[in-house]
Design a protein that fits this description.
This protein has about 625 residues and is an alpha+beta fold. The protein contains 26 helices and 17 strands. A hairpin with a 2-residue loop joins β2 (about 35-40) and β3 (about 45-50). α14 packs antiparallel against α15. The longest helix has 19 residues, at about 605-625. The protein is globular. It starts with a strand and ends with a helix.
């Protein structure tokens, strides 16, 4: 695990050491254990290393036998031992015992086809001196990030945008100031900037499962090397027993592959089904002590999952630590914005960062339950969409009356607040299903967006680019769209930035592509059975976990942000209505004041829009103003 960066000149200039060193220094938190450089005429590569496997012998860059291929990469190749055996049988000679060297030898034999042989999480940069080409690539789901910038004389890339910003002559221009309002509307709706776009003009994110090749003349080509097949349609005759055992075997294999480490390893344990099942399968692989970690927040028990995590830890006999903290969201705001390089409205970054930081004091690698909700339709919004399909017969006047009645009721800030959930559902129900689904997950409602950003386009695509019209089942189509949007651009960005901020490697067995391909073939009604989510995964977990954990109501990884912001509303107002903020002329100040006033009064819980606006303003102060 590490951070990588580099530069390729088209104008004949050699790659200089000092620019590479500045870029690399900006990535030190991703790899505090060492650094490496490769320069060859117009190209320069650099990396920061976090020691995980072959600590003494796998310093990067890595090379083939004649050093005509040079590699820097971030991540882990979990099938490297099997690949190495195959490559050695073909005559390749290895100089390290690590996973990364397999990539350069695979490239010698398969070229860009080598990417399809890799089973893992990675972002890589490979220089082929014979061809004069630089190859960049990301793993299938996008667990490891990679950004790039190109102008008329150079191409540069890095694991994080902040490294690119060290380059001389690279303009720092905000896309939120664009006249069409599209970037601002996307951010206030999704809570992030969808890839390949970023908040900076001219800086792009390489998308998941994509390879980019550029040569010394500046000719650039991208291609997608993998797509998850369409989710299987419902099958009324399908039985859980036909799939549960093989699913457990596939998940067991994915966990086993991710236990390879030369440094201390543990797991995040929330007490939910996904992380608990991962830890249960870790226990089956080893009799050694397993360290597990959870976090809770003082002030609102509805957000505290630590009692469930402790129950699972006792059942599985792990060495468990529960952290209970009284975090200050506004105090953490600058740190989180700096780590993400862009405005990022998902407030669960706060607990993710804190549990990563506390976990890193004990271990260097932690397994997570990320991806379980994506593979097995676990989010409540999928069940809500299924319910909406059944209620489409209700007359619009009745729905409007119900929504109007709910509008008059105050909202609490607790996790399962029924008024807040019912209002959102009632407002979305009359809309077409895809639009209704987006209304359930969006940060700012359509009405709030129009008030905050009057120049936003009236018609937005939202989920349209991610929907596959060939998918016949309406809710399965939404699950697929979620895997193409929220998973890579929110969940995995958050997991990477927050863990890397603490120099902790996070591994997600559910995002093993072989497991995902198997899961895609399971009939959809065995994932979402009526209103019961993860039906087949719960069947696979029987005998491994207590029934109370398996059947526990879904609980997202959140924190009492609404209550915190209500308590600290004065500094919120000072930031969002400051002279600096209003002079940007991005937002309507009256609409911002209305959000603050309604939240302070307790009539609405606007924690998500307010956090989005706070991160937007903090980003401008750090990255644009100075």
């Amino acid at each position: 695990m590490c951070g990588i960066c580099g530069i390729l000149h088209f104008d004949g200039a050699p790659a200089r050491f000092q620019p590479l060193r500045r870029m690399n220094a900006a990535l030190r938190h991703r790899g505090p254990d060492g650094e490496g450089y490769h320069r060859d005429g117009a190209v320069g590569l650099a990396m920061r290393r976090l020691n995980i496997i072959d600590i003494a012998g796998s310093d990067q860059p890595l090379y083939n036998e004649d050093r005509s291929v040079a590699l820097v990469f971030n991540g882990e190749i979990y099938n490297f031992r099997a690949l190495r055996q195959r490559l050695e049988a073909r005559g390749h000679r290895f100089t390290t015992a690590g996973d990364g060297e397999t990539i350069v030898h695979l490239y010698e034999d398969y070229g860009r086809g080598a990417l399809e042989e890799l089973r893992g999480m990675f972002a890589l940069a490979l220089w082929d001196a014979r061809r004069g080409t630089l190859l960049l690539a990301r793993d299938r789901f996008g667990q490891k990030p990679l950004y790039y910038y190109r102008d008329g004389r150079r191409f540069a890339f890095a694991s994080e945008i902040k490294a690119l910003l060290t380059l001389e002559g690279l303009p720092r221009q905000s896309r939120f100031a664009d006249a069409d309002g599209r970037a601002l509307a996307d951010y206030l709706s999704f809570g992030y900037l969808p890839a390949p776009g970023t908040a900076f003009r001219g800086i792009h994110m390489l998308e998941a499962a994509t390879a980019l090749e550029i040569d010394v003349a500046g000719t650039l080509e991208t291609r997608r090397y993998w797509r998850l097949k369409a989710l299987a349609a419902p099958d009324a005759a399908a039985k859980p027993a036909h799939y549960a055992e093989e699913l457990r075997e596939k998940l067991t294999e994915a966990v086993k592959l991710r236990l390879v480490s030369d440094v201390p390893l543990g797991a995040f344990l929330s007490g939910g089904l996904d992380s608990s099942l991962i830890v249960a399968l870790m226990r089956r692989q080893s009799n050694a002590a397993i360290q597990t970690f959870s976090i809770g927040f003082a002030g609102d028990d509805s957000f505290d999952e630590t009692p469930y995590a402790e129950q699972v830890a006792r059942h599985l006999g792990t060495e468990h630590q529960s952290f209970r903290v009284e975090a200050d969201a506004l105090e953490l705001l600058p740190k989180l914005v700096w780590q993400h390089d862009q405005p990022f409205a998902d407030s669960s970054a706060i607990p993710t960062y804190l549990v990563s930081k506390l976990t890193r004091a004990q271990v260097t690698v932690a397994l997570t339950g990320d991806g379980g909700d994506e593979l097995f339709a676990g989010y409540e919004r999928f069940a809500a969409a299924a319910l909406m399909r059944r209620l489409q017969f209700l007359p619009p006047p009745l729905l409007r009356a119900a929504a109007g009645l709910l509008q008059r009721l105050p909202e609490g800030t607790d996790y399962y607040n029924p008024i807040k959930r019912a209002r959102r559902f009632a407002q979305a129900l009359p809309l077409p299903l895809e639009q209704a689904y987006f209304d359930l997950l969006r940060v700012c409602s359509a009405e709030q967006l129009a008030q905050l950003c009057p120049r936003a386009p009236a018609q937005l695509l939202y989920l349209q680019p991610y929907l596959d019209p060939r998918q016949p089942h309406a809710v399965a189509r939404l699950v697929e769209a979620n895997m193409r949007s929220y998973l890579p651009d929110d969940l995995l960005i958050k997991a990477d930035r927050c863990s890397m901020a603490a120099s902790l490697e996070a591994r997600a067995p559910f995002l093993d592509h072989a497991l995902a391909e198997y899961a895609a073939g399971i009939p959809f009604n065995l994932k979402l059975k009526g209103m019961r989510s993860k039906h087949i995964l719960k069947a696979a977990a029987r005998g491994l976990l207590p029934a109370a954990i398996i059947e526990r109501k879904k609980h997202g990884f959140g924190l009492p942000l609404g209550a915190w912001l209500r308590r600290d509303i004065a500094p919120v107002r000072d930031i969002l209505l400051s002279r600096r903020a209003t002079e940007r002329r991005l937002l309507d100040a009256t609409a911002v004041e209305r959000l603050i006033a309604e939240h302070a009064a307790g009539s609405r819980d606007h924690n998500r829009p307010l956090w989005a606006l706070l991160t937007l303003e903090e980003w401008h102060r750090q990255f644009i103003d100075g």
